[in-house]
Amino acid sequence: MGRAAARSLAGIFRGVSPPTSHDGERIVLEAVESGRLDAGLAHVLGDRLEDPDARRAVMEGAAESKRLARGDVVTVSRNVFIPLTNLCRDRCAYCTFARQPGSPEARTYTLAEVAEAARGGVATG
Ligand code: SF4
Predict the structure, then answer these.
(1) How far is the CA of 30 from the centre of ligand 1 (A)?
(2) pLDDT digits (tens, 9 = 90+) for 64-120
(3) Which residue ranges make up each domain of the chain?
(4) Does pTM surpass 0.85?
(5) What stretch of H or E contains 99?
C-alpha cells in the first residue's frame, strides 16, 4: 500500500464511521505482507486497541511478523537497569518513569536506593 493510499485509508477511518474489526485485520495483514506499517495506519490501529478483536489482530500480526523475520527463536537479555535519576530533558517516552525538568517528581536517587536496586538485581539473577 502506498503512502497516499494509506493516508487516505487512515483519513476514512478517522471519519464518521469507525473502522470495523475486519478493517483492522486487513491493515495488519497488509502490514505483515509488505513488511511495513504506515504511521497513520499504526495510529488507527492504536486507537482501536480497546477492541478485543483489533487487539488480537495486532498481536497475531506482530507474532507473524516476528516469525517471518526471525523464525521461532526467542532470545532474552538478562540485565539490570539502574538509573541514577528519573530526570530527562527529551521526550522519546522510552523510559516510562522519566520526568521533565521542573516536575515535582523529578529526582536523583540516593546511593542507598542505587545500592538497593543493585542488590535486587543480584538477588533475582
Ligand atoms: S526517556 Fe528517552 S531520552 Fe529520556 S532517558 Fe529515557 S531513553 Fe533517554
Answers:
(1) 32
(2) 999 998 898 888 888 888 999 999 998 788 888 999 999 999 999 999 999 999 999
(3) 3-70, 77-125
(4) no
(5) none
